[in-house]
Design goal:
The chain is elongated, with a radius of gyration of 19 Å. It has helices at residues 10-42, 48-52, 56-78, 88-92, 95-122, 135-158. 26% of the residues are buried. It is mostly helical and 161 residues long. α1 packs parallel to α5 (95-122), α3 packs parallel to α6 (135-158) and α5 packs across α6 (135-158). It has one domain. The chain starts with 9 loop residues before the first helix and ends with a helix.
């Protein structure tokens, strides 16, 4: 198996680097989709996917949050610390980084939902369930979650393990 390093032409090294970024973006996008599905399950009183589709503004906010998430993932994947000199396949399919992203997904989802419920209980005069009355409010809620999750994934991708 060829190794990634100075022996390869620059253009080939760049293509391998781009392949790694693309693979990480697809994995993190899948995690973001799972996160939205999990939000539906963990916050049954807020119907995220249904409500967002009812308003073009909410849909726009969702798409904007998604683009910010993907931008954070691309930046994290492009600037991540990586070991040069190993196999090309091991570089592109770095299961340690994938595992760290998956663990970060689970932890961020758990922390996010726990903090949401704690803050909801600590602020009884601000009824969080009322966001379900407006698709735009739900869009802003999911927009914030996507940025939160993008920052978590960015940190996971750039952690020097």
């Amino acid at each position: 198996m060829p190794e990634l390093g100075l022996a390869l032409p620059f253009w080939l090294t760049v293509l391998i680097w781009l392949a790694r970024i693309i693979v990480l973006v697809f994995i993190c996008t899948l995690l973001a989709w799972l996160g939205i599905r999990a939000l539906d399950a963990l916050t049954p009183h807020i119907h995220e996917r249904q409500r967002i589709g009812e308003s073009p503004i909410a849909t726009g906010l969702f798409i904007a949050g998604f683009f910010i998430l993907v931008g954070l993932v691309i930046h994290g994947a492009a600037t991540a610390y990586t070991a040069i000199g190993g196999s090309i396949v091991g570089y592109i399919f770095d299961f340690r980084t994938w595992g760290l992203a998956a663990i970060s997904f689970a932890i961020s989802l758990g922390i996010g939902i726990a903090l949401l419920r704690i803050v909801d209980k600590l602020t009884p005069k601000i009824p969080f369930i009322s966001i379900n009355k407006s698709p735009v409010a739900v869009g802003i809620y999911v927009f914030g979650y996507l940025i939160f999750f993008g920052l978590i994934l960015h940190a996971a991708l750039t952690t020097p393990f």
